[in-house]
Amino acid sequence: QVQLVESGGGLVQAGGSLRLSCAASESIFSINAMAWYRQAPEKQRELVAVIFSVGSTNYTDSVKGRFTISRDNAKNTVYLQMNSLKVEDTAVYFCAARSPGRYTMNHWGKGTLVTVSS
User: Fold this and answer.
1) Which residues of the chain register pLDDT less than 70?
2) What does the CA dihedral 93, 45, 59, 101 come to, rounded to 10 degrees?
3) According to the model, what pLDDT value does residue 76 have?
4) What pLDDT is recorded for position 29?
5) Cα angle 79-24-57, degrees, rounded to a multiple of 5
6) Which site from 13, 64, 94, 118 is most exposed, i.e. has the minimal number of CB atoms within 10 Å?
């Protein structure tokens, strides 16, 4: 069972930046996909960004051009660089991973809170 631990959340003013990190307890080299999700108060969890083992990425429309997902297989870590943050980016951000042969994310972190103030 891969353990995922997020860090880097906090309070930032609108227009600012944060970088989230997701450290895995074992090698992510063979992990098919790693992603960041977020859940705002009273809203459903949504996919923010995903990065596949081949390096390709996808983003939800609301963060395109502002957020960048990356992975460092040597450090077993996935990052989410968030720039030009908006109040509506406020949420708990979760890291997730999908093992080979699985069709959905089957490993989840506990989340890190990002609060963007106006």
Assistant:
1) none
2) 100
3) 94
4) 80
5) 40
6) 118
Place of tokens 């906090």: 10
Q: 6 with 94: CB under 8 angstroms?
A: yes
DSSP letter assigned to residue 40: -
pLDDT of residue 104: 92
Contact 80, 111 (CB under 8 A): no
How much is the pLDDT for 97? 95
Contacts of 28 (CB under 8 A, 6+ apart): 2, 34, 71, 73, 76, 77, 78, 97
Give the amino acid at 108.
Answer: W
Closest among 27, 28, 25, 18 to 93, alpha carbons compared: 18
| Amino acid identity at 68 | T
Residue with tokens 């506990």: 110
Alpha-carbon span 32 to 27, nearest angstrom: 12
